[in-house]
Very-long-chain enoyl-CoA reductase
Amino acid sequence: MKHSEVEILDAKTREKLCFLDKVEPQATIAEIKNLFTKSHPQWYPARQSLRLDPKGKSLKDEDVLQKLPVGTTATLYFRDLGAQISWVTVFLTEYAGPLFIYLLFYFRVPFIYGHKYDFTSSRHTVVHLACVCHSFHYIKRLLETPFVHRFSHGTMPLRNIFKNCTYYWGFAAWMAYYINHPLYTPPTYGAQQVKLALAVFVICQLGNFSIHMALRDLRPAGSKTRKIPYPTKNPFTWLFLLVSCPNYTYEVGSWIGFAIMTQCLPVALFSLVGFTQMTIWAKGKHRSYLKEFRDYPPLRMPIIPFLL
């Protein structure tokens, strides 16, 4: 069998970093990354981005050399993605922080509201409901990370964990400070507003979990298989008929319900920022679905039925 040759150049300087001879034509990009690591151990496979063009897109690990538009000597361009950290570690850190931080404010530990309020409790039922809802949300996320989610990429840049934790931890502290404040006042419309918003929160949490389970079942463990998600017998998944990312739809709905229940401005701002970011993600996934699947349902929108 005739072997191929692969030269790897620095995408910025065009300096030759590595020359691999006798590479099997059936070799995948993942295997080429492993070969590259042998000569440059500081760049482990997760740090590597290999491309056909210096400014092009990263090749997928599962791409096969002989199926790429290259000759017998393939030229690939390398970019260092920086230090990496596993998605599981990132998610667990992101979600454990808000859970712990919120409880510090709920139990009114010293140095937050003043000495006379240390370890006191709010007299308002909505404050206790808010703590249960907030804690449930993040406990659910912590459990879903190792037991439900299956990630297409094993790692992400280490620098992202600082940005993400600042966002989640910062907003958790901000909203918790006001909701658990001794001077907090209940929502304008009292128990009716709280009950309605609580129902919205619970329904959306169930919907979000249902979508995560449906997406999990589409990808066998250890694979990167991608399929078109369709509704199942679970009514919460029927939202797939109208949107590509109903998990984001339900997530936004949960926080809207939480904002209405607590009538707290920081929660409303957190919901708005989250909706903006999830819309960007949803649009990206929607475009990816349309590009990858020719028979993708045309009626679907990224995140909001018929609108967005």
Helices lie at 29-39, 87-106, 125-147, 159-179, 190-218, 246-262, 265-292. The chain has three domains: 4-82, 84-185, 187-286+293-307. The chain is about 50% helix and 10% strand. Residues 30 and 114 are 57 Å apart (CA to CA).
